[in-house]
Amino acid sequence: MKDFAEIFTEWEKDNKIIDKDKSFFPQQNFKTKKEKDLSIDLHGFTKKEALEKLKIFVLQNRSGMKTKINIIHGVGRHSEDGKRVLKEAVKEWLSQNKELIGYFKPADIREGGSGATIAYINPKK
């Protein structure tokens, strides 16, 4: 006698359900139309260069909608004296530019972990 798992697997094949997640949830990204994601990688730049690139990036991507950005700065393993120069500089810049940045937080593991920061650009008024 077949168990439930075998019967269900056969039923899936017969009904051509190969990838259940795609069948039931064809759009994996559930963002609203008022939000978009962007990313900038600051690896290899000096502090000054990185902050200038970040400023330009934010200004270029400021629009009429909330914009989520993933700022990749690295964890600071190659910094002088073991200090996390870019990570700390990015956090400082974000906190000092409240008119441009509404909110920021450390990235979770899927977004880059301790080597990235997530920020939300304020919409243009």
In short:
With 125 residues, the protein is an alpha+beta fold.
Overview of this protein structure:
The chain has one domain (31-121): Ribosomal Protein S8, Chain: A, domain 1, CATH 3.30.1370. It is 34% helix and 21% strand. It is built from four helices and four strands, in the order ααβαβαββ. The protein has helices at residues 4-14, 20-24, 47-60, 85-96; strands at 35-41, 66-72, 101-106, 116-121. A four-stranded mixed beta sheet has the order 1-2-4-3, covered by helices on one side. Helix 3 (47-60) links the parallel strand 1 (35-41) and strand 2. The model is unreliable at 19-34 (pLDDT under 50).
What best-fitting shape do the alpha-carbon axes yield?
Answer: elongated
- Mean residue pLDDT: 79
Looking at the overall shape, the CATH architecture is 2-Layer Sandwich
Which structural class is indicated by helix and strand composition? alpha+beta
Q: CATH topology, which one?
A: Ribosomal Protein S8, Chain: A, domain 1
Query: In which order are the strands of the major sheet placed?
Result: 1-2-4-3
Number of domains: 1
In angstroms, what separates the terminal alpha carbons? 67 Å
The SSE order reads: HHEHEHEE
